[in-house]
Write the structure tokens for this entry.
Amino acid sequence: MRILTGVFLVLAVLVAASVRAAESLDTIIIDAGADRQTRIAIVPFGQGPEFANLQPMADIIGFDLSRSGQFAPLPKQNMLSYPNQPKDVFLRDWRVLGVEYVAIGTVAADASGSITASYHLFDVVNERQMLSETVTGSRRHWRDVAHRVSDRLYESITGIRGAFSTKILYVLARNIGTPGASYSIEIADSDGERSRSLFTSPQPVMSPAWSPDGRRVAYVSFETGRQAIVLQDIFTGQRDLITNFTGINSSPVFSPDGRNLTLVLSKDGNPEIYLMSLADRRLRRLTQHPGIDTEPSWSEDGRFVIFTSDRGGRPQIYQLDITTNMIERLTFVGNYNARARLLPGGKHMVFVHRRESLDHIAWQDLARGDVRVLTQTTLDESPSVAPNGTMLIYATQDRGRGILGVVSLDGRVRYRLPSSAGDVREPSWSPYLDTLNGGW
């Protein structure tokens, strides 16, 4: 069964879903990488015995680059040497191994408990040093320091900002159908590690969404006995119930400036898209149609709201100019298209696309109308795009269980974040975060 975030079949699915507990996401399974991967060596960092109980930092960095699908890290057993200092790097040795880039580093701790990773990146082909930097954080930020190094290596080589330091939200259900049933909003690193619960309830929760500054989340909760929309501060845990109208209260999404929230309400009799000012909680109705309007999202500039509507007979994707209220239909290929998200730059979007009775995640060029199916799994839903626009995460099924999948925007890189203990659904990729500061 699928947990949809819009109005369509939400209640039926929530009642019928049968899932088990999942304390965390399992090891990533990489299904496909780019045709031509960049060969890189992440040499084991020099780190003292005081870090023996922590995962080697080079292993975390290597796995980050590997799961991007664009890099093929050299296994450490195939390395001819293990330098930690630039003077010990002999590029000819790495050239013999067919390596294009080499990263080396050391990790040290000071008396206060802070750790500093010093690292260097070399371009083997052009025989030059590209980076020489340090990253500092507390001991509890061990993985965050590693992800930050991964971001910098990725950006230096590809020219695209790395997104390994980001987080994901998702919904987890436990023991459904038993007296101990519970639902939770989970937060984890982008690789699925260090998951923790932000909120747990015996009633369903759904549709988690990030604020642009990454400090708050909005989601739907049934804790009052009906749908209600809640805002929660990630760091203090403070929760604020902002709508609890009779009928549907669903699909909250922050505007790009964080000042407004789009949401779906049926308080006036029909599911419509509304805009709420978070400063004074005033509501503005954006759509007025006897059809079902749901699943809003925003353009990067905050000018347009993209939404799903069956006003034409079947669910399709539309665009509304919030200044003029002009509405334009965006999808024409297929008889079911829903849950759209615009990519950075606003020229393309991803969405759920039904083809031959199967739901996949698809990409569309808005100018030309070209549609390309990105996923090869089935019952795919809830796409959410990484802030650098290179990958998206979505919910799918594997042997009857809900898991999370990740695919590159060209469809060539795919991996899964399975859970051995039960279903996980409705992922939401965070904006860029400063995970070394600000309370993370």
Summary: The CA atoms of residues 34 and 107 lie 31 Å apart. Residues 1-23 have pLDDT under 50 and may be disordered. The radius of gyration is 23 Å.
